[in-house]
Amino acid sequence: MSQSDTAAWAAWGTPPSPRYDALAARFRPIFARIREGAVARERERELPYEAIGWLKEARFGALRVPEAEGGFGASLPDLFGLLAELAEADSNLPQALRNHVGFAEDTVGSPASPRRTHWIARLAAGDLFGGAWTETGPATVGSFATRIHRSGEGWGLTGQKYYTTGSLFADWIDVVGSGEAGEETSVVVPARGPGVEVIDDWDGFGQRLTASGTALFDNASAVGEPLRTEVRFPYGPAFFQAVHLATLTGIARAAAGEVARAVRERNRTYSHAAGARPSADPQVLQVVGRVHSLAYAAGAINLQAAQAVQRAYEARVTGLAEAEAHAINVAAEIELAQAQSVLTGLVLDAGTILFDALGASATSRRHALDRHWRNARTISSHNPRIFKDRVVGDYAVNGTQPPFQWKIGQVGSTAI
């Protein structure tokens, strides 16, 4: 059983909602199975096809689909709580599903249309969606070399993407590119359709099993009409950052659980130690308590951030006046920036100091304890946190609104 099961969240605080435990009970047995193979997958760099399959069979990807439309109707705090539990089992999994939950979030909150009806049905059935947005190379910030163009009676897609996280495991890929008039737009293509190739060439030292590599599109056929990205959910940046925070929270909890278990089982001690066994050594126990406390604080920040994103969702779907909805989206961006800045440091500390409670044998590759720091460092390198403190400071001092798009590329001769 997981730590969340046995302690009933006692170590981590109050669950996100009164219905959370009933919702989580559907998936915790799957999380436990995923946890059992996490270290072996890490050591062997075995992509988690089977684990993703278990989640797909349980329709984990339908969490945000309303119950009346065949889903589970989870709130955003519920979703991010479950992603944290999944990350506690294996942090590669929520990262691999990040593009899926983003596509689902945009679809669930969209106004009624044939497009929404079509994709809601696929989400409710358990289909998984990957994403292909970022391009490497000399592209200018805010532009895409990938083209969305007319192809016969429909639309085609041609180009190359990187950081296509989760697309190797997906049924569909949500791709952003340049339309025929140069506008930024998006289409969905079958992940295994003609003209689509997804390559496992991600070589990061962390989150190694997320399939975050290259996707190639050669006149791939799109399903339906292109969708202008400007009409997609306005709190998208805050939402995607919240997924990272949930994943980081799960990493901290996994680190806390593993260091406690390792100390409990350890018999060897040192001549200059303060106890006959590590489990009775007050200095060792202090380290374990510190890692747990860091994980607790991360979870509290994660929940607070999730509530900010929930308010932004409600602003989108309840028809608030544009100015009021915009103010709520600004608040969500600022809250998520603050949360990222602090939570990231907590989790990186947890992944580092856990080794102070253990001996050199803990660095053995068979334990894979280094994965917690590596994975946290990799996730926290996305959307760099150094810029977030400046954004928050500029807002606090000058009232400058935060940027609502994170784009990467070159400006003139200066790479960004």
From TrEMBL:
Q: Enumerate the UniProt keywords alphabetically.
A: Monooxygenase, Oxidoreductase
Statement: the UniProt record of this protein carries the keyword Cytoplasm: no
Report domain Acyl-CoA dehydrogenase C-terminal positions: 244-382
**Source species, domain of life:** Bacteria
**InterPro entries named in the record:** Acyl-CoA_dehydrogenase (IPR050741), Acyl-CoA_DH_C (IPR013107), Acyl-CoA_Oxase/DH_mid-dom_sf (IPR046373), AcylCo_DH-like_C (IPR036250), AcylCoA_DH/ox_N_sf (IPR037069), AcylCoA_DH/oxidase_NM_dom_sf (IPR009100)
Q: Which GO terms describe its molecular function?
A: monooxygenase activity
**KW Oxidoreductase (keyword) present:** yes
Checking Gene3D superfamilies in the record gives:
Acyl-CoA dehydrogenase/oxidase, N-terminal domain (1.10.540.10), Butyryl-CoA Dehydrogenase, subunit A, domain 2 (2.40.110.10), Butyryl-CoA Dehydrogenase, subunit A, domain 3 (1.20.140.10)
State what protein this is by name. Monooxygenase
This protein's species is: Methylorubrum zatmanii
